[in-house]
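Narrative summary of target 7.
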Amino acid sequence: MSLENNIANYFKFDEKGATLSGELRAGLTTFLTMAYILLVNPAMLAVGGIPFDDALFATSIAAFVGCVVMGLWANKPYALAPGMGLNAYFVFSVVIGMGIAWEVALAAVFIEGIIFLILSLPQIGWRTKMINAIPKDLKIATGAGIGMFLAIIGLREMGWIQDDGATLVNLGGTESWGGTIGETGVTTVTGGDFAIWAHGGVIAMVALIAITVMMARGVKGALIYGIVGASIWGWLVGAYDPYNDFLAGGAGWGAAEAEAPALGDIFGFVGLPEESLGAAFGAFGDIGDDLAGFMLVMIAFLFVDIFDTAGTLYSVGRQAGDLDEEGNLIDSEEAFMSDAVATIVGAAVGTSTTTTYIESAAGVEEGGRTGLTAIVVGVLMLSGLFLSGLFQAIPTFAAACALVIIGAMMMKQATEINWDDKEIVLPAFLTMVLMPFTYSIADGIAWGVISYVLIKMGMGKFDEPGPIMYGIAIFMTMFYLGPGDFSTFGWIFDKVL
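Modeled conformation, tokenized:
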């Protein structure tokens, strides 16, 4: 039997309607849409004190382990990596805001991962019971909300929307796109002189439309072609990358001008971590100095990771046709445990919580149906150890256009919500819109559940939510509300969350 046949049998290609070429293409597509994490996560964790190279090593290893476990064990096409939002909370709220050492914060993430692993065991199955207890309409709304969340992230990174003091968000500065090319033949950001064809927002929109046309024509690999094409275009003209122009209000994680990497900068091993490897274990002795702060941080990581992962797995699984007749995720325990294992390994080597990525939807759209897709992503993530220069050079606007088109595809789920049921309209709506408006999947799910339970109680239908939904609603209310400036958990531990 050939190698290809062995692979097909192991990953159940026939059962899942997959092909080897489709799985490889899907893995590459997912990787290209989330390769930014190889730059952004180390840059963010470096602000909290973890050395950049240490964090890059940890990011690559955590993603590799998570993806391979997801692929070989759960046989799911879902990619994992240290989570955006979770890393921001780690740095700005925990390390800087609460003054907790990053080593202790890593220890909290490590313990959180162990707890998740226990809760995910088939013998316990708490995480599966939780997601199955959420009403179908709210789970469908989660998928649509994640689509909106992807869209706002993508449009922001494309340079098409920006923050606004009066209206919160607004259209980007399109009136400035018709400047003139600099004397050197490349864009000059400082003076605002750049041709319209050298603006990342324009390049990304052309790529977005091109991707859509290719997909409508049935072209395989449309997302890859769009990302690569936009990157090459940006490199050739030295395009302005609005998302990374810190002085203009951008995030500033990368260069404000696209530039192809020099050959000598592409290759190079970052080396083993000098400070972060095993730092979580050494920090256990310091937990007693601030046990209350440690417990509060661990609870916060638990809460956000539970609902980020559950929402992502369900919505991407639904897109991949990975639900049973009752609308529940098939073999969810294995998927949840893969996520927990990745979190434990990530904390041990030096990164914040590892979670399932919504960008997995890009690979699913390209035909990814089995764990081979996740394994491809994991192997490519290891390239961050050797090819960081190449991936750092991919313009943010180039990868962002893929997020917008996937967000559009995921919005079709909203049509399956029973909008005639007045008791579900508000919970479903809040689930959807709070995800982009709060930049958090967890917040959207939380207030969708809370409002659902309260409405059922208001209707006198006290039995309908069930004990699990009541428990989730109470737990989440305690996370958000409490006396004074505290949440309930913050009040218990005398710490502002």
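Residues 180-191 have pLDDT under 50 and may be disordered.
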